[in-house]
Amino acid sequence: MLHLIWVLIVGAVIGAIGSLIVGRDLPGGWIGNIVGGLVGAWVGGNLLGGWGPQVAGMAILPAIIGAMIVVFLVSLLIGASRRRA
């Protein structure tokens, strides 16, 4: 149980860092940051591997890069859907 809480905290921080670097926010506040961070860690791990320091089973640098990609893509999709509406 403690490991799951740690993973969620690290995911939130990674998502928040990705949002800050890209300069766009994910919808949903902290829940969006957690999802963005966890999905970003998965994307970054698959694209870049597991190099660099690891916390809670996530390689931090690839996870942040993956979170940046996720934040950017989600903001593009949300922006496109808002323009159509």
From TrEMBL:
It is found in: Cell membrane. Coiled coil: none annotated. Its main location: membrane. InterPro entries: Transgly_assoc. Pfam families: Transgly_assoc. The chain crosses the membrane at residues 6-23, 30-49, 55-80. It comes from the Bacteria. It is a multi-pass membrane protein. Keywords: Cell membrane, Membrane, Transmembrane, Transmembrane helix. Belongs to the UPF0410 family. This is GlsB/YeaQ/YmgE family stress response membrane protein.
